[in-house]
Amino acid sequence: MTDPPQTDPLPPHVAALIARRFPHSGDELVVGGVAVGELAERFGTPLFVYDGGAFAAAERAVRNALPAGWELFYSMKANPAAALLQFFMGRGCGIEVASAGELRQALAAGCPADRVIFAGPGKTDVELALAVEAGVGELHLESVGEARRLANLAAGGSLSARLAIRVNPNAAVQGGAMRMGGRPSPFGVDEERFEEAVDEIASAGLSIDGLHLFTGTQILDADVLLAQYRHGFELARRLADRTGRPVRTVDLGGGWGVPYFPNEAPLDLAALADGLVELEAERTADPRLADARVVLEPGRFLTAEAGVYLARVTDVKISRGKTFAVLDGGMHHHLAASGNLGQTIKRNYPLAIVNRLRAPAGEPIELVGPLCTPLDALGRSAAIPTPRVGDLAGVFQSGAYARAASPLGFLSHPAPPEVWVDSGVARLIRRRGNPADFLHDQLPAAGIAASGRPDAD
Ligand SMILES: *Cc1c(COP(=O)(O)O)cnc(C)c1O
């Protein structure tokens, strides 16, 4: 046996992530106790693999940082796989949904309706009616207009849901990669006219007993989160003062970040926990807030680090001096990693050739997908070993906003399967999409080809 190399050839942020979440890896990445080569062989590529232990570790880390009694609702838009919903439900989480489709998936996964929070702008009458009928535990109102439509729907019937109002706060509490506070926004009611909105909703016949604040995602600074939470409690006090009733629920949103890029460090959970002790002492000493349930609804933090997207190298070619490795997967499965989901400057997600973690990096590599568009690149000038046909490329931080936020239909490749791996056991939790599915919703277009226009009827 030769000694391991003295200097780890992986970039430090990739090495740190592997040490944190996939510590049993040697020269080959090991996810949930199974080497990725074996997973790729058994389930085919491209695919998403999830380490069940890493989900559990993330959930534990959140709970350990929170004051006792605070509740966790998993924000399912990060990754709606039913197995994942059931996993978090089994660990005591509720589920936060933001569409009728998400609500149906949460209920189908076995989530009791009263453990659902329904948020999101633009809930249609159909969605509001479905939420009322299903008996969801909490509805977050995003505007006075939405509240009026809900009041009409619920008129005469019984509305069991707790109602919270979402506030778009002033500029003082901004933070995160995607800011949603302090500027014009479709989310919530502006802080400047928040009390008026509460009055208007009351005169529509609904009583608001909760406050919802969620102002930004991918926040890596504990102080930013603490400032937002402090502001959320302050708004909740104002709500109680306006209604004359104690607040029943305060939802402080999601937004906890994970490091993607070399200059980013993980969220300082110890600092967050320390700050929360003080906030919680102030809250419980205030009769307006003492009996409220306090909720956090993270998505990304709970799921991102457990997931790896695996794609196989199908071709390696050189064009005008640059080396291109062409993968069997790409932006249609992982839009965020291609830099086309909200990034203005494309930066590479953490990447590696996961069957040769100890191979030194060669010249910079263009890691591209199979789609006929130059947007389909998962790595630009990537510092990885020169790929060989048959190698496995891995994109880390792929448990959140990856498959779920991608244009799966673009170019009509099959949708990628998802595999859950824990303690050496791998289970398929979502099948590879059948390309024939693209044919099932098509209607015969008799007459179009001949006339260039559909038939009149
Ligand atoms: C997206 C979303 C979340 C989750 O955000 P993360 O940054 O993934 O934690 C929570 N609440 C609402 C209302 C959301 O829309």
Describe this structure in words.
Residues 59-304 form the Orn/DAP/Arg decarboxylase 2 N-terminal domain. This is L-glutamyl-[BtrI acyl-carrier protein] decarboxylase. The structure is a single chain. With 457 residues, the chain is α/β, with parallel strands linked by helices. It has helices spanning 12-21, 36-43, 52-65, 82-90, 100-108, 125-134, 144-154, 194-203, 222-243, 269-284, 300-303, 437-440, 448-451, and strands at residues 30-31, 34-35, 47-51, 71-75, 94-97, 116-118, 138-141, 162-168, 178-179, 189-190, 210-212, 216-217, 249-251, 293-296, 307-319, 322-327, 351-353, 365-368, 377-382, 392-395, 418-422, 425-430. Helices cover 29% and strands 21% of the residues. It is globular. The relative contact order is 0.16. Bound molecules: pyridoxal-5'-phosphate. The site of pyridoxal-5'-phosphate has 17 residues, from α11.
